[in-house]
Give the backbone structure.
Amino acid sequence: MSELSAEQAKWGRHLERTGWILVTFGMLSQVSTEYAFPSYNVALGFWAAYCVLGKTGKGTFCLLTFLFLGIILDIVFCSINSSPSSTFQFALVMLIFALFTKVYMLFCGAHFFGAIGGAYDMEQSMLAGSAYDSLQKSSSEHEHVGGYYPPSSHLDGSGHLNSSSGGGVGGAGRGVGVRGGGGELDEAGRF
């Protein structure tokens, strides 16, 4: 991957650091033996570190969505659970600290999302490396087999499958491939 720009590095550094702080608060909120506190805060912290490392728009958008959902769930959890136990009180305070950390993380994540390209990055990454790389923009470039356009490396000069390509999907003789080594299509577009 390419190096981070100055703005990406700035917001990425803030996002990663708050992610590790969230992991710490998430682990400290698990000390209560009375109640099971939400443990998704640990996963969200690790996810933030992944988003900074991978610089993916989809991953960062999902992080922001789940951070927002996590803030709502933390408020609901804090409002309906109570106990006089000191370990419960400690875990509740750590959960509240994690809640404030997530609010700041949402702010940093939104800036990082914008710095890496935002929604435009999501559109571009949907097409790059997808299963549709072999589809040609125009069907007039090559003859096709049932809507499938084989990659140009498997075609000879006339637009037919090479017999040396070893067949298409699944190897020789299976799926879309070369039958009998001829590679010629009949009038219906079949081998």
